[in-house]
Design brief:
Elements lengths: L4 H25 L4 H25 L27
Helix pairs in contact: 1-2
């Protein structure tokens, strides 16, 4: 079954988050490794970009991403766990 664009972007966020967690654990024991630091910076940037794109296209993933001053928009779209992803 083919994934929707929303599912694809969520999967990318999951993969990028996993890589970041893994690299963070490595850096806890190897804090001076320049390749690991570069990998961390690269994936942090990729995840920030993917997250911004996801929120822009499909709405916030968590309530901390609501940016409206006039209305609580968190309730306007299905939540990420409601079967749309």
């Amino acid at each position: 079954m083919a994934m929707t664009e929303q599912q694809n972007m969520m999967r990318r966020l999951q993969v990028q988050s996993f890589v970041l967690t893994d690299v963070q654990l490595y850096l806890d024991t190897h804090p001076d490794d320049p390749k690991a630091l570069e990998c961390y910076r690269k994936y942090r940037h990729l995840r920030e970009q993917t997250m911004a794109d996801y929120v822009n296209r499909f709405g916030p993933i968590n309530s901390m991403q609501v940016e409206s001053d006039s209305r609580w928009t968190w309730v306007d779209t299905p939540w990420p766990w409601e079967g749309t992803v």
